[in-house]
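Structure tokens please, single chain.
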Amino acid sequence: MRRFEQIGGHLAIDFVNTLGGRPEDPDDEYLNGYNDVLAWTERTSLLQPYTLADLRNAATANPELADAALERARLLRKALDRLLRANLNPKPQPRKGDTATIRTAYLEAIAHATLRPHNLHLAWAWPDGTNDLNRPLWPIALAAVDLFQTAPLQLLAQCQHCRWLFLDTSRQHNRRWCSMNACGAIMKMRRYRAAHRP
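Here you go.
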């Protein structure tokens, strides 16, 4: 998780990218356990360290509840993934269940939130002193709705080597790789070897 690259251009897309690998064979799972969900929220600065510590303790004391929260995280990710890929390829229609999954997660997040002043605006916020193991999903659910309401999804693209998604905000809108440190370097090396093969 420490090596996880935030390349999506939006929090919800980065969450979808916690499942990687080849497009037709996703096998690079970042969320193998509940502690991985916490590690991801720490990597993306969604939760305060003391909240993370409380949730780790709660997960240790309630492993079945932690597994259920992990499953909810993966279901939310799957729904987001399918809806986003439907934007890339409009032919396969997303299931109504996917929007219902996001709606349910969003309503739960709002039910636990309060409105607080933030830079002359109002923002949703949650109490930090909670042991609710679904707490990491609340800001992700809000980000998911924000993604489909405000993000420039016409710029959504997929890496030409792996399944990771991103918003292509490059000047020419011709970005091909999720990251030049990962797939870009791999493909450049392959082209170099092919060009210099005896």
